[in-house]
Amino acid sequence: MRVSLNWLKECVEFDLSPEELAERLNLTGTAVEGIEYLGKDLQKVVVGQIKKIKQHPNADYLKVCSVDIRDKELQIVCGAKNMKEGDKVPVALVGAKLPSGLEIKRAIIKGVASEGMMCSESELKIGEDASGLLILDESAEVGEDLAKVLGLEDAVLELEITPNRPDCLGVIGIAREVAAIVGSELKKPKIKLKEVDRSIHQATRVDVLDGDLCPRYAARIIDDITIAPSPLWMKRRLQAAGFRAINNVVDITNYVMLETGQPLHAFDFDRLNEGRIMVRTAHLGETIVTLDGVFRQLDETTLVIADAKEPIALAGVMGGAHSEVSEGTTTILLESANFNPRSIMRTSRKLGLITESSNRFEKGLDPNGPVYAADRAAQLMQELAGGKVFKGVIDVYPKPKRVLSLTLRPQRVNDILGTNLLPKQITQILESLELKVSQLPTRNSQLEVHVPTFRTDLEQEIDLIEEVARLYGYNRIQSTLPESGGKRGGLNLNQRISLCIKDILVSCGLWEVITFSFIGPQQFDKLMLPADSALREAITLRNPLSEEQSIMRTTLLPGLLEVLRYNAHRNRYNVQIFEVGHIFHSRPGEILPHEPVMVAAALTGSWRDNEWHERAKLLDFFDAKGIIETLFDQLGIEDWHLNRTIRPFFHPGRGSEVFIKGEMVGILGEIHPHVQEAFELPNPVTIFELEEAKLVKYASLLRHFEEIPKYPGVTLDIALVVDEVISNEEVYKIIHRWGGRLLGEIHLFDLYRGGQIPRGKKSLAYSLTFRADDRTLTEDEAKKALERIIARLKKELGARIRA
Amino acid sequence: MSIREELRCLAEEAQRAISQSSSLQELNEARVKFLGRKGQLTAILKSLGKLPLSERPTVGYLANEIRETLEESIVSREKELKKELLQKKLEAEKVDITLPGKRPCVGRKHLLTQVIEEIIRIFMGLGYSVVEGPEVELDYYNFEALNTPPDHPARSLQATLYVKTAHEPKSSREEVLLRTHTSPVQIRVMERMKPPLYVVSPGRTYRRDVADPTHSPMFHQVEGFAVDKRITFGDLKGTLEVFAREMFGKDRKVRLRPHFFPFTEPSAEVDVSCIVCDGRGCRICKYSGWLEILGAGMIDPNVFNVVGYDPEKVTGFAFGMGVERIAMLKYGVNDIRLFFENDLRFLGQF
């Protein structure tokens, strides 16, 4: 909400600069988002008096004026027609910079020198009128700054009003806060109303058919109104608050709303069928054209204001076009009502129509506010629109809201805040907010607090404690730390392992990424998943922002591949990344899905580009496998292996499932060339995705020291030629089984095809280290062990030993 | 020429050859020439037998002396030559030290992870534990139990992402949604555990915001709360001051401004003095000198009632902070979308 300080000063006295006031408001809960200084851009605009008007010698439509600005007379060429000699007008002097950005310079206009510019309202951005010069009041002093003369030297505070404080949606409400802050008194405008003899009850009647949705409806009738523009001071205040001036009647309803927070509506009384008001829900099939010109279908949940025949307004939201105040309006029915917040919210949401009025009503307004606001508006209509106010107010208010009384324990205040406030101090603070406090005649010096009805947010003791805290000042409450000792924080084992996993992957050269948890179903197509794939069974959003963010991911792979694509489009082809995050699967019989954490990585391109010392090498399956090996090794995970698998998104010869102690924990493989293409990636990609909980289950951060070998070992190499179909693992297992106790490490150091190796065969070379832990092994002993291995390899695999 | 003279001449000649040899090969040739099996000194030694018996010992002694001297010379010349050789080799091995180094490949954790770990580290030091909660959540935990009224705008389809459920929810509390904050973890923990509780809870959160430089439909929060006997607003202040100074530097000033949240009362927004201008006022802090970093407050008694705690016996505070916002402030990141685009040129900076 935007509040003019000049306006505020009418309601409360304070001696603070705009910045100081903003600071005080900020620290008491009314956030100030900005301060706008008005009149700042009206420098070098002064009051001038037109002494002489002559016709321009070279242009029919221009006049040459001689204008007194106190210390001298200026010659100014002007195109306006509405001025006469003796008028006082705003004069922008040479050097002035108008709000539009126009800079005033000395000029020759059609051969005549002009030393400034006389301005209209709109040129000065202080009003809308662009039809001619702004003619100032005769009392304006010649030569004075215009901003000063017009009271434009003002500051506007932009306030953020929290939803629990609808009472602050008006100048009076803010003034009440200011009064409490600075310790002065709220001065609500006094109503001075002269009613005519004719009674409103003779002129109209109001029937409220739904008292729940409309707890109160007050109305006044004012006739003999002359519709005209509002006076400048009112226009300026409306403008400062961000409103457009329309005409005196509409402006007054807005003005009083800004002042009191209570929305008002003025109906053209002569347009009402039978001149009466009914507050009811709409009938099915009823329609209305609202003030914004939109034709709207209504239903039975919508509360409307109707005349004897049809809806004339959407209650609390927007008036109807038919009964709108117009040029010819002479009599108005002024509505000042209270509506059920939820009903207003529903209507406003359903129609997609948020107005100043609906926005206030939906926060819950004080039902005891409408009559004051109606009287205030009636007074202004009498003063500014020549209206005659009928005697009396129609006020349908069957169940008046009573003042709430709460008990407050001063000790509780101090217990919650950590303060040592005396009951007297607490009382003083609450009373400054117009709460009435009395001592209860009980032992605990409890206080009884009467909450005025405009403070809809104060319902419990704790609400009062908050009032005490914010007005006492959060900054005055002493900082402490919780007194209870012996707290023990930290991470549990699972959390530590989880942290460990990220650390290891990072040390393996992978970069962590974070991608959105929602993806689009088309990602599954890109992964070539068949229609019945379990991965497609995703949690679906009801109101997604877009198709691309419409389902919860069931795998991290699309997110990672999208990151590769994003970077490839920016010419980064060497990308090695991982993500740790939740995937989502629905669970039968459960409302909430299963959210396992997955650890996934994707590697493409090479670790580095060509270097002066090394050529780039494309990463492959084994680079990813190596990372898994390192990860498992560091996590103390043993007894794991890979099983070949076929997945739609894997290269058919390069996909695998990862097993630990016989349990499947994830997948590892190179993605299918089609998938690679679908993600627009130039190089092959290897990925893995593992379930974190299963890694945690088998991980062990405990380590047990193993004796370092005391005696040197003997290392022997063998190279064998086997059929292509024989796997490393098969060879490895035989070596391991037949190596006996003496065999230590087995290291594959060469894999070779071609050359002298026949087609369909490959050569594998291992170096084997034999070692005894009680003596230095002789070469003969090692050779004997090797002979045994060789014999088995020959027998079981048909291996040929290369010389 | 007597045999002695002959020996002396030979010794001189050999000594010259040794000292003049300019390579190990030349030195070896000299050795072979004089001391080898068919060498000249060896020949003389072999011919000693032809000398008269009386001369043999002295000549033999002299010959052996010469031989030893020559052998020593050879060894020392060999050392010299090897040293020279090494020197030449090392000279030739000089490198251009301005060539780029060979870097090991290491990755890094995402900036948001770094920030979350930093926040958690600070609170672990204050005795907090870490508990996480589900990202797909019930309305009950996300809103209702947190004292959020049924018509609260945050509950609307425009503000919150809802999940399609197999069955029509019987009431709004059974609606399933993507949690809009980490606060539901408060309820889940309090339902399950008894005070004293000192907990932080990091995680992903979601809102139906179209992505722009300051909004993202997914972001991260860290929730924290303490429930114990005699927890006060002063404790909340003290705790957040410790946090802010650890996180943003020890000279930071901290202020709490009253605010409104449905599930805390009194509530506060917490500012630190601007880390860019140190409170003097700049573009980043919108010339206020302060940066808002989190929301906090005393846990509302209604929330305690929901989980079956007696608000007369325990009190507590809670706070929640946006990780992206803190990262953006601390590292000067100017667009929240950068966190989720995962451009390596971005990731590589932190």
3D structure, described in words:
The complex is a heterodimer of chains A (803) and B (350). Chain A has 21 helices and 39 strands. Chain A is α+β, with helices and mostly antiparallel strands and 803 residues long. The longest helix of chain A has 19 residues, at 779-797. In chain B, 41% of the residues lie in helices and 19% in strands. Chain B has helices at 3-20, 24-35, 40-46, 56-92, 111-125, 139-142, 184-192, 233-248, 301-307, 323-331, 338-341, 344-347; strands at residues 129-130, 136-138, 176-178, 197-206, 218-228, 254-261, 264-273, 290-299, 315-322. In chain B, the strands form two sheets. Chain B has a seven-stranded mixed sheet with strand order 1-4-5-9-8-7-6, with helices on both faces. A two-stranded antiparallel ribbon of chain B has the order 2-3. Chain B is rod-shaped. At the A-B interface, helix 8, helix 11, helix 13, helix 14 and strand 27 of A face helix 5, strand 1, strand 2, strand 4 and strand 5 of B.
Number of strands of chain A: 39
Q: Please give the share of residues in helix of chain A.
A: 25-40%
CATH class of the largest domain in chain B: Alpha Beta
Task: Write down the domain tally of chain B.
Answer: 2
What is the largest interface, and how many residues per chain? A-B, 93 and 87 residues
What is the string of SSEs of chain B from the N terminus onward? HHHHHEEHEHEEHEEEHEHHH
Work out the helicity level of chain B.
40-55%
Described by the principal axes of the CA atoms, the overall outline of chain A is elongated
Enumerate the strands of the largest sheet of chain A in spatial order, edge to edge or round the barrel. Answer: 27-30-31-35-34-33-32
Named CATH architecture of the largest domain in chain B: 2-Layer Sandwich
Specify the structural class of chain B.
alpha+beta
Span from first to last CA of chain B? 89 Å
What's the number of extended β-strand segments of chain B? Answer: 9
Strand arrangement within the widest β-sheet of chain B reads 1-4-5-9-8-7-6
Q: Could you tell me the mean pLDDT of chain B?
A: 92
Radius of gyration of chain B: 43 Å
Q: How many helical elements of chain A?
A: 21
Ranges of chain A where pLDDT stays below 50 over 5 or more residues in a row are none
